[in-house]
Amino acid sequence: xxxxxxxxxxxxxxxxxxxxxxxxxxxxxxxxxxxxxxxxxxxxxxxxxxxxxxxxxxxxxxxxxxxxxxxxxxxxxxxxxxxxxxxxxxxxxxxxxxxxxxxxxxxxxxxxxxxxxxxxxxxxxxxxxxxxxxxxxxxxxxxxxxxxxxxxxxxxxxxxxxxxxxxxxxxxxxxxxxxxxxxxxxxxxxxxxxxxxxxxxxxxxxxxxxxxxxxxxxxxxxxxxxxxxxxxxxxxxxxxxxxxxxxxxxxxxxxxxxxxx
Length: 261
Description:
This protein is of the alpha/beta class and 261 residues long. It is built from ten helices and eight strands. The protein has an eight-stranded mixed sheet, with helices on both faces. Helix 5 crosses helix 6, helix 5 crosses helix 7 (209-218) and helix 5 (155-180) crosses helix 8. It starts with a strand and ends with a helix.
């Protein structure tokens, strides 16, 4: 049975370890983990030797250093499949070009959090390395075997879209939460919209402070653009027309999420 090794054991590392263990042997390297149901390695070198698939699930700051280490270890090796799950790719994508051709490399972004029940039906964006697009096939097949939904993107497009689909919602949620915290007993006055926004905003805090700050910092230009846009007039009728086929279902889903349906 092939082994999938995971470097880093935060919330997403733990999620993937549990999912992969349904069909693979799983090994872990983490400086912070002392005991586990999975095999623990004492070093990246030790983990590298006995694993076919290697997933890097470290922090945004640590990932480039880990990939540099893996690039060195990959010399005179073949058959390895190496990928990461970082939220932003700009700082790391060039590092993959240092890996020998005998090693397959790509980057992925799971578009869900550690609260997901399984990989089935979950969206994963796969970012192939320019000139090494075929390298991504093994990773695509790996996640398809778990019935994940695969979407392909280039790194530049991916990073710009993440500023919008993650950075701006995080900014909105945290700003909302920070603002309402100034009003005593405001929860007593809140209705469904308030409850929905409050739940989302508090859920963001499940991420590490380091990650949240990185997301906001990386997304600064799009957040600034959004704030300028938000000062303008909103054309409600135009929005109603554009989303007319989705409004009723969205409203039903809104109440369903709040367990009021």
